Amino acid sequence: MPSPSLPIILRILDNENRLVERADQKSISLLSILGVFMVFFVVYYRVIPMNPFTVTVIVMYFLFALMSIISLIMAIRPRIRREKGDVKTPPRHDPAFFSGISSFPDVAAYKESLLKLLEDDASVANNYIGQIYSVARINREKYKFVQRGVVFVIISLAIELVIITYLFAYHLSTGLNIMPPIN
For the chain, what are the domain ranges? Predict the structure, then answer.
């Protein structure tokens, strides 16, 4: 008879896996938004007057855009380090976790290991609890980088708006009614 706590454990694991998906979706969306705004910036780059102010702001823009891209890519693929206690334990074939499943040499070995795991409810619960912990560590890293990426994207977009505002003010002050056409 399955343990009454197993559905709760599986629900927690499912929630952690959904958080992984959300972090990836947020990162990809922010990268897309940043890309769209960078295209607008590149299109109008040739009409930006080069002076100390614009050079400084453009350099700041590209630095923050680069930092946001790096942060968001790190959110999609974070680097997770083994904890001190993990180093002593040898790698094992986990028949219920994606990294363990692919390490089995064939289907028969996987089937044997999975059936052996399913014989004991406590080992099933321990297995899934370990997965929850691993996925939660991944989520912690992902959301750390997503938060950094959001801040850097906001700063990048704010700098871009400053540049656009300056660009309109500069061209209006030089007597142009509109910005020069882009051909």
Answer: 14-81+92-173
